[in-house]
Amino acid sequence: MAIDFRHVYKSFGEKDVLRDLSWKIEEGTCHILMGPSGSGKTTILRLLLGLETPSSGEISGLPKRSSAVFQEDRLLPGLSAEENIRAVLGRKVRREEIRENLSAVGLSPERRVPAGAFSGGMKRRLAIVRACMAGGSLIVLDEPFQGLDEENKAKAAAYIAQKRQGRTLVMATHDEADARLLGIPYEKLTM
Amino acid sequence: MNKGKKDDRKGQDVLTRLLSVALALLAWQAGAAAVNRSILLPTPLSVCRRLIALIGEDGFLPTLFFSLGRVSAGFLLGTALGLLLGALAGRYGLVETLLWPWMLVVKAVPVASFVVICLIWLKSRNLSVFIAFLVVLPVIYQNMLSGIRALDIKLAEMAAVFHMPFWRRVRYIVLPQLMPYLSSAGRTTVSMAWKAAIAAEIIGTPGGSIGKQVYLSKTYLDTDTLLAWTVVVVLMGGICEKLVALLIQKLGSHVGAPFADGGRTP
């Protein structure tokens, strides 16, 4: 089912962040939101995740389940990488599967190190693995490669492309090169 | 910091504490020598002797358990209700508004006034349960409320997006953030509960309680016994505080690292 934004406005107090946005996201497609900081990219992503409601206008077709890489990593700092994923996914996922996924983005599945002690890049990659392993027909990525070096960016992008498996993907970035790294066709919405 | 350095520091800490206890005992001894009247201020040694004799008496353990049971009951009841009401007030502003005058009264009214009122309402045997409960309740409530208010909304959003089940949210997101508040409240209130409950027992003099023994010692001007029972209360307060701290620490490590060995279910 397509996600359809119809004449969506969003304001916070006096500040209008979105004005008359009409936008359609077909199921299984990849969309990139481009624009400078403060242009409303994160607000659109929050609307997609159901964390905000439009001030006026209508959004239809939002999926029941989504997953996300937030602008901040939003990890559980006292838990290890594996535990962070299990806290979200529960016991249904095998340990080997989690370890394979962590290794795919260059994270060694250290059992005893809490995520709070990770470097910025490690936290980012863990947040990417968590989002990609979680279910849901929509993956929302807010600046997913920020803080990653070129090598890890490439690894993370290849991982996302592989794990997408036909799911709808919406990514916010200020650098189109990040979108090209994914290596999949995309539509661009410039803010 | 490596383990060796940590152990050294811990050892130094224990040594410093022991030294400060020794200094306090010396000051007490010097004070008792200066006063030179055991009825006013007995020496630490005579109190220690009386304490050892007291422990050997038949009535010691029943008296200890009488007060311990009531303080524990009051503490547990106050903690349970404080947690529940704090959580509700943190979630629903109306509950906080409704509870505000009650909590204000419980915090502001002197313990002695409550004791006198309760003696009219309750049997003196159960007085210390109620007083310990009243002392613990507002502190736990306030800390729970502050903890709930300080919860990280971003983690709550993450949990909502990933559809984390309720109990997993409580365990991995809410509890780890509440632990510092509950730890501080738990440790503070357990000693407060002991102090207030014994004060209530001294006024209500329920048979078989530590408070009654303290009251009788005062009546007979038996200062050695009075201070010996006081030492018992101080020790029990300290032991209970350590136990509560240990329990909270265990709980904290459990909610902090649930899958450390890969076997536990979220």
Written account of the structure:
Helix content of chain A is 33%, strand content 26%. Chain A is an alpha/beta fold. Chain A has one domain: 3-Layer(aba) Sandwich (Rossmann fold), CATH 3.40.50. The model of chain A has no long low-confidence stretch (mean pLDDT 91). By secondary structure, chain B is mainly alpha-helical. The C terminus of chain B is likely disordered. At the A-B interface, strand 5 and helix 2 of A face helix 7 and helix 8 of B.
Tell me what portion of residues of chain A adopts beta-strand conformation: 25-35%
Shape by Cα distribution of chain A? globular
**H/E element order of chain B:** HHHHHHHHHH
Number of strands of chain B: 0
* Unreliable residue stretches of chain A: none
Instruction: Give the rounded overall mean pLDDT of chain A.
Output: 91
CATH topology of chain A: Rossmann fold
> Which shape of chain B, going by the Cα principal axes?
globular
Secondary-structure-based class of chain A equals alpha/beta
Biggest interface goes to: A-B, 27 and 22 residues
How much helical structure, as a percent, in the residues of chain A?
A: 25-40%
The share of residues in extended strands of chain B comes to under 5%
Helix proportion of chain B: over 70%
The count of helical stretches of chain A stands at 6
What integer is the average pLDDT of chain B?
Answer: 89
